[in-house]
């Protein structure tokens, strides 16, 4: 059988390999949808849809929206302030009024994928403020890592304070994460590349050459520029600047849950809400739906009826995304200006 190769520059693919690659890409794109549908199918087998609808009808939506809209505005404002501080530290001064439309408009793409929103911010700052793309991407990666660390720190309150059976399992995880993060920061600050060190040892073992040395590409990567420039005060201040958004989220959820007939003690909400956020942030479903609802039902099952919890988790999730997107639409015209 004669094979016909299609050439694109230096790369060639046969019809069979092209078909296999396309199928693989389609399956990868379909996987989040399948996971989302599977989670909701599992939930709705235990929580009747009619009960969820009935719970929604009892909610004073006007009061709920009056609570959520100021929260979304405050969230956007504080989120922009944190980004502003990072840009000023690691790049150059940018006025708040120029950064706010960019940060707000990115929420539109973040509905589909948070990474798209971050990419939009990086590209906009590259075009508008002439910050090198890889360097601003490094700063956004720095912010993403610290957001995860912040949630992990707050989640420790919930894990070790309210779930002793989880504490035993998660204690080694926290030790490994903390040690790994510390080693990574130390290596970056000292311009050491642990990957190059490992590859050097492997290369010397395979070749028998004592002078073999792998190139230190990781330490010289521009994507890690911000991590190399950052000092301890930058890490601590970023966590401090991010704290008001989380505390505001706890206060808003505390009040909003009561509108749905769910009463959770404030301290318990403070400890468990980060766990909900962590589970919801897993990139396995569409728009973080499904995992968020499952987390609310699991962690807060003792504080309200399952139908009320499911109704709240759906409304809160969708409302937050829609309001943030509407804020982004309002700023879109200014964000698109050069």
The average pLDDT is: 86
The whole-angstrom Rg is: 23 Å
Helix and strand content put the structural class at mainly alpha
Series of secondary-structure elements, N-terminal to C-terminal? EEHHHHHHHHHHHHH
Query: Looking across the biggest beta sheet, what order are the strands in?
Result: 1-2
Low-pLDDT runs of 5+ residues are 1-12
Helix content: over 70%
Largest sheet geometry: 2 strands, antiparallel
Strand share of the residues?
under 5%
Terminal Cα span: 55 Å
Describe what this molecule looks like in 3D.
It is a single chain. This protein has 338 residues and is an all-alpha fold. The protein has 2 domains: 1-39; 47-335, no CATH class. Helices cover 77% and strands 2% of the residues. The protein is built from 13 helices and 2 strands. It has helices at 15-46, 49-57, 61-90, 96-110, 114-129, 133-162, 164-189, 194-207, 225-229, 232-259, 266-280, 291-299, 306-335; strands at residues 6-8, 11-13. The protein has a two-stranded antiparallel sheet. α10 (232-259) packs across α11 (266-280) and α11 (266-280) packs antiparallel against α12. The longest helix has 32 residues, at 15-46. The relative contact order is 0.14. Residues 1-12 have low confidence and may be disordered.
């Amino acid at each position: 059988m004669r094979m016909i190769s299609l050439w694109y520059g230096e790369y060639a693919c046969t019809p069979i390999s092209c078909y296999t690659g396309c199928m693989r890409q389609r399956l990868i794109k379909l996987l989040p949808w399948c996971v989302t549908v599977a989670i909701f199918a599992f939930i709705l087998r235990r929580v009747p849809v009619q009960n969820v609808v009935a719970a929604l009808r009892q909610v004073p939506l006007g009061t709920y929206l009056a609570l959520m809209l100021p929260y979304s505005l405050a969230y956007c404002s504080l989120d922009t302030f944190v980004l502003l501080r990072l840009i000023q530290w690691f790049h150059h001064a940018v006025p708040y009024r120029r950064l706010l439309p960019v940060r707000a408009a990115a929420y539109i793409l973040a509905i589909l994928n948070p990474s798209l929103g971050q990419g939009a911010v990086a590209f906009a700052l590259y075009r508008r403020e002439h910050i090198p793309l890889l360097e601003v991407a490094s700063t956004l990666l720095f912010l993403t890592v610290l957001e995860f660390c912040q949630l992990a720190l707050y989640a420790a309150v919930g894990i070790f304070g309210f779930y002793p059976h989880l504490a035993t399992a998660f204690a080694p995880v926290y030790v490994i994460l903390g040690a790994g993060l510390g080693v990574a920061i130390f290596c970056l600050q000292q311009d050491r590349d642990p990957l190059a060190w490992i590859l050097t040892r492997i290369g010397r073992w395979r070749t028998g050459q004592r002078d073999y040395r792998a190139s230190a590409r990781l330490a010289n990567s521009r994507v890690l520029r911000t991590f190399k420039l950052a000092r301890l005060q930058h890490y601590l201040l970023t966590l401090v600047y991010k704290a008001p958004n989380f505390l505001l989220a706890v206060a808003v959820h505390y009040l909003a849950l009561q509108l749905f007939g769910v009463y959770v003690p404030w301290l318990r909400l403070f400890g468990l809400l980060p766990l909900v956020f962590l589970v919801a942030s897993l990139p396995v479903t569409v728009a973080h739906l499904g995992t968020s609802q499952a987390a609310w039902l699991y962690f807060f099952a003792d504080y309200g009826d399952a139908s009320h919890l499911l109704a709240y988790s759906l409304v809160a999730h969708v409302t937050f995304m829609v309001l943030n997107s509407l804020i982004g639409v309002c700023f879109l015209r200014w964000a698109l200006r050069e």
